Amino acid sequence: MGYTTKFTGHLTLSRPLTMIEAKTLLEINEDPATATGNRPGDGYMQWVPGTDLQSIVWDGGEKFYDYTEWLQWVCGWLRDRGIVCWGTFIWSGEQAGDHGELVVLDNVVERKEGRQHTLGRFAPLTLRALADMALAEVTKP
User: Fold this and answer.
1) Which of 62, 65, 66, 101 has its CA 20 to 30 A from that of 42?
2) Which superkingdom does the taxonomy of this entry point to (predicted)?
3) Does the pLDDT value for residue 74 go beyond 90?
4) Is 1 inside a domain boundary?
């Protein structure tokens, strides 16, 4: 049992993530214990790079707890690498009235409860897709 919250939207990054940066975030997604600094909660970090490496999206997984705190952690992690991020995520939980938006401007997260609308869904990056991208990059003629 557990509670599921779904998200639409994305964060835009001021520059594309490097392959190493994307790999680090994806490894934290798989094992949150590898996160450095003040990591929130015991749950999974489900904010991952988009397939374009220039966005952060929800990985589509269920039971994402501490999502606001994890987004704050990701925004700080990006800031520490000189990356500015901005954008909006819309959330909708299982219970009536559990919806709102997370608005990010210059790496600062603002939570707005009760807002209800939708944004497009963006594709999350996986470690396998990242490996394919890296291979394509190094084998370019």
Assistant:
1) 101
2) Bacteria
3) yes
4) no
